[in-house]
Design brief:
With about 350 residues, the protein is α/β, with parallel strands linked by helices. The protein has helices at about 60-70, 110-125, 145-150, 170-190, 205-215, 235-250, 255-260, 290-295, 300-320, 340-345; strands at about 45-55, 85-90, 95-100, 130-135, 160-165, 195-200, 260-270, 280-285, 325-330.
Length: about 350
């Protein structure tokens, strides 16, 4: 284990004008990577393509993505609007390759960040082969679900399926009624569900079936990513998201929405032997107000140390390399409403 640097007294309150511009690249598009192998080697009937999970905030989209991939690549939290970027998870099957696109939850925006996240969701709908709408079984279908499906109905050429998530939280009678309500919602909005599938990411119930159904809806073609790749997200983005996930744990009120993370530097330490690598990560956590900064740091830096320890363990598990994590907390005043700061923070 590496030591986490406890630098509780060294926090710059000014917004850094030299934020890594590399994080300003467009994450919206879905470029087609080079095929993993020639078409002559592709099994007959092999399929590959993109599927997008959408839904209201906190309906289980990210957990479902991780369950299908078989490894955690997307952060999860009980805080609404946790997902802020498009992260692609890759599922490798004998009959095809499925690229899962996890998107932010569609919601009523309260600021410029919310508007941009909604735009990101709607743009993704038209760029994938299948859109899977998630309806948690422990919650009634409401106006937010109807609004989402009505908007989705305007996207004509994309196949749509419905996924009843969190089925482990309800009994059979309630699940049956939930599935009927999903079917009725499709009829009343003019949305033709290609499939309605109940699943549980926690128990694994019908996760394999969902993967099989999604692959069957993909166009025939070669794999788009090399065998073994689980995501195409840059490691810096994955590390930043895991740090943000750790920072979200235990915070309340508006603070979850105000936290952003930028990895400033990341690379293997040069003076280490090859059999003992150490990955140095230097990252900044941004909040909007001084009072929020104090919450994130905690008394004598205790909470920030806890965030760093938890994040480091998650990053090490994902990347398979020992990590030295250096965290600092900075203030970017009202960044969710400021176009310039949103751009610098990667939105």
């Amino acid at each position: 284990m590496t030591d986490f640097p406890h630098e509780a007294d060294d926090f710059d309150e000014d917004f850094d004008e030299d934020l890594d511009e590399d994080l300003d690249e467009d994450l919206d598009g879905l470029p087609a990577p080079a095929p993993a192998f020639g078409s002559a080697e592709v099994p007959e009937g092999y399929r590959s393509g993109f599927a997008c999970f959408v839904g209201r905030p906190n309906v289980g989209k990210s957990t479902l993505t991780n369950a299908l991939v078989g490894q955690k690549i997307v952060i999860t939290s009980d805080k609404p609007q946790t997902t802020r970027t498009v992260v692609r998870g890759i599922v490798h099957r004998a009959d095809g390759q499925l690229i899962l696109v996890d998107t932010p939850g569609l919601h009523r925006p309260r600021n410029l960040l919310g508007e941009r996240l909604n735009d990101l969701v709607k743009t993704t709908w038209a760029e994938v082969d299948v859109v899977a709408v998630c309806f948690p079984a422990d919650q009634k279908i409401g106006p937010g679900d109807r609004f989402l499906v009505e908007e989705l109905a305007k996207v004509r050429r994309t196949t749509k399926i419905a996924v009843a998530t969190k089925t482990d939280l309800v009994d059979g009678e309630r699940l049956g009624q939930h599935l009927l309500n999903i079917a009725e919602l499709g009829r009343s909005t003019g949305t033709d569900w290609a499939e309605i599938v109940p699943v549980s990411s926690v128990s694994g119930h019908q996760i394999e079936l969902l993967g099989e159904l999604l692959v069957g809806l993909m166009p025939e073609g070669p794999p788009l990513y090399p065998d073994g790749d689980l995501t195409d997200a840059p490691e810096e983005i994955l590390a930043a998201e895991l740090i943000r996930e750790a920072a979200l744990d235990g915070v309340r009120d508006e603070l979850p929405h105000s936290i952003a993370v930028v990895v400033e530097e990341m690379g293997l330490r040069e003076d280490r032997p090859e059999d003992r690598p150490l990955l140095d990560i230097h990252a900044n956590l941004y909040v909007e107000r001084d009072s929020q900064k104090g919450i994130v740091i905690g008394k004598k830096g205790a909470r920030l140390r806890e965030v760093g320890t938890n994040a480091r363990k998650q990053i090490e598990a994902l990347l398979g390399t020992p990590v030295y994590l250096d965290l600092h907390v900075k203030i970017a005043k009202d960044w969710q409403k400021d176009p310039r700061q949103l751009r610098r923070l990667g939105f």
